[in-house]
Specification:
By secondary structure, this protein is mainly α. The protein is built from 19 helices and no strands. The protein has one domain: Sodium:dicarboxylate symporter (Proton glutamate symport protein), CATH 1.10.3860.10. The relative contact order is 0.18.
């Protein structure tokens, strides 16, 4: 019975219970959605202040201003390289397995598809980058806009650090507030099994298993690609930096299960920031890499978008040439970066990509609507794992990772 007190066991029980409740009582879906959204909202409640106080206390406390720019630039380069690898492995797998071959398509009017198409036409990807600078910081905090809060936090930290000893009392107060916020987070995380239960009950109750019969091959191909990406590409990166991938995954197992249940990597953003800091990563590196990665390092979303384009091409018997597939890669390298900043991001970004390619009928998105929720868990998990690994790798490359502490906390090794 002692195992029932362990959080990840409780979350696992919540997920299994959610599957059965959603399957046996589909009408519970609306209640499950309410439970899941309430839990995620409780997490979102602390995301903006946690990012702000972590960045300020990290950079203004013991951090270096030059280091902020260096870490930021290194992060963006890392994100672009890894995202490109995710795109390539997604293209290769989709072309080899061919999940769209033999899938029938019957066009029917779909209100949701019409709304998605309209939003896709309204998306201006240049605006995404100018949107990083907030016009109203109170509004940025109120909306929980991660990149805007991050931008303001860095400027505030630089301004506070330039005050020298005069700003020390404010910095001390901020550090205390941050500890209070993490105590609040610890209280919220105790409710994560209920949140995971609600999320899974909603998914199964709302969408059922029927759509999996037709699009099961696409789902299996996507999850296979995600596994290959994590245990081949990211594992090779970890091995190069002498980081044990398996032990790191075990360390964040509670968060992985919460992401699976809630279908949102945002639900564990503050939690993983706390865990990586405890594991020996410096505050400012964690505070910079994790929030930035949530918009620029969406490996799972990138694989999904890439695979969906190839899948739809196969459904409509459109033979994309190598040049056209390379064009798809180029477009996705841009459009995928905006996925986190757009409501209903997956379909809107995919629709905007198809509009840019101008080869595949936009109506094909109707095929993906039913199965998308079953793939969103995979996208969120891959995104989350990718950002966690990125933070550890960048911290180590910056000599901002206490390896003795890391080995002791993550790998359970006692330093000699």
């Amino acid at each position: 019975m002692k195992y029932l007190k362990v959080l990840y066991i409780q979350v696992l029980i919540g997920i299994v219970a959610g599957v059965f409740v959603g399957w046996l009582f589909p009408s519970f879906a609306s209640t499950g959605k309410l439970i899941s959204e309430t839990f995620i909202n409780m997490i979102r409640m602390v995301i903006a202040p946690v990012i702000f106080f972590t960045i300020v206390s990290g950079v203004a406390g013991v951090g270096e201003i030059k280091k902020v720019g260096r870490v930021g630039l290194k992060s963006l380069i890392y994100f672009e390289v890894v995202t490109s690898l995710a795109l390539i492995i997604g293209l290769l797998t989709a072309n080899i397995v061919k999940p769209g071959e033999g899938v029938p398509f019957t066009h029917s009017a779909n209100t949701q598809l019409t709304e998605i198409s309209t939003k896709a036409n309204e998306v201006n990807w240049g605006d995404f980058f100018s949107h990083i600078v907030p016009s109203n910081i109170v509004d940025a905090f109120a909306k929980g806009d991660i990149l805007q809060v991050l931008f303001f936090s860095i400027l505030f930290a630089i301004g506070l650090k330039s005050m020298g000893a005069a700003g020390q009392s404010l910095l001390t107060s901020f550090e205390k507030i941050n500890k209070v916020l993490f105590n609040v987070l610890n209280i919220i995380m105790k409710l994560s099994p209920i949140g995971a239960f609600g999320g899974m009950a909603y998914t199964i109750g709302k969408f059922g298993f029927a759509t999996l019969a037709v699009l099961g091959k696409l789902m299996l191909t996507f999850y296979l690609t995600g596994i290959l990406f994590i245990f081949v590409v990211l594992n090779l990166v970890c091995r190069y930096y002498k980081i044990n991938l398996w032990k790191l995954l075990v360390y964040i197992k509670e968060e992985i299960l919460i992401v699976l249940g809630a279908s949102s990597s945002e639900a564990v953003l503050p939690s993983v920031m706390q865990k990586l800091t405890v594991a020996g990563c410096e505050k400012e590196v964690v505070g910079l890499v994790i929030p930035t990665g949530y918009s620029f390092n969406l490996d799972g979303t990138t694989i999904y978008l890439c695979m969906s384009v190839i899948f739809l091409a196969q459904v409509f018997n459109i033979n994309l040439s190598l040049a056209q597939q390379l064009t798809v890669i180029g477009i996705l390298l841009l459009t995928s970066k905006g996925a986190a900043g757009v409501a209903g991001s997956g379909f809107i970004v995919l629709a905007s990509t198809l509009t840019a390619v101008k080869v595949i009928p936009l109506e094909g998105l109707a095929l993906l609507i039913g199965v998308d929720r079953f793939m969103s868990e995979g996208r969120a998990i891959i995104n989350f794992i990718g950002n966690t690994i990125a933070t550890v790798i960048i911290a180590k490359s910056e000599n901002a990772l206490d390896m003795d502490k890391y080995h002791q906390v993550v790998e359970m090794k006692v330093s000699k």
